[in-house]
Specification:
- The chain has a single domain, classed as Sandwich (lipopolysaccharide transport protein A fold), CATH 2.60.450.10.
- Strands 1, 2, 3, 4, 5, 6, 7, 8, 9 and 10 form a ten-stranded antiparallel sheet that branches.
- With 124 residues, the chain is mainly β.
- The protein has strands spanning 5-9, 14-18, 21-24, 32-35, 38-41, 48-59, 65-76, 81-92, 95-105, 110-121.
- The chain is globular, with a radius of gyration of 15 Å.
- One of its GO terms (molecular function) is lipopolysaccharide transmembrane transporter activity.
- One of its GO terms (cellular component) is plasma membrane.
- This is Lipopolysaccharide export system protein LptC.
Length: 124
């Protein structure tokens, strides 16, 4: 993970990030690329809270791109897992899906959408 600015808050043992940029590899050559305007890393470093303009992108071996956008997301890098309770939009696979809340199992490329799920897809 890289960031334009890193500030450690000693009182809470939290690290504040400006424009964090994270690549999560799932054992292959096609990583998930995670970005946001701000972020906070927990004291143990096992949890990253991404805040404002969160974007998660991946292109697979067939050159298909999946883009997930939301306003806030919690990422657990070691578990290759992410979650949000906010509105989420997924662009990919010939369509757009929106929902309220998501659990993303990045290692398995599986996403559970929690409520208000809507999809719009192109006919082939």
């Amino acid at each position: 993970m890289t960031s334009d600015k890193v500030e450690h808050v000693k009182a809470t043992d939290v690290t504040l990030l400006t424009t964090p940029d994270l690549h999560m590899y799932r054992g292959g050559e096609f990583p998930w690329h995670v970005q946001s305007k701000k972020g906070e890393v927990s004291s143990g470093g096992d949890q990253v809270e991404l805040i404002d303009s969160v974007r998660v992108e991946r292109t697979d071996e067939k050159q298909r791109t999946t883009i997930i956008t939301t306003s806030r997301m919690t990422v657990f890098p070691q578990k290759q897992y992410a979650q949000t309770e906010q509105d989420v939009r997924i662009d990919g696979a010939g369509g757009v899906t929106t929902a309220k809340g998501m659990k993303a199992y990045l290692k398995d490329s599986r996403m559970d959408l929690l409520s208000n799920v809507r999809g719009q897809y192109e006919a082939r």
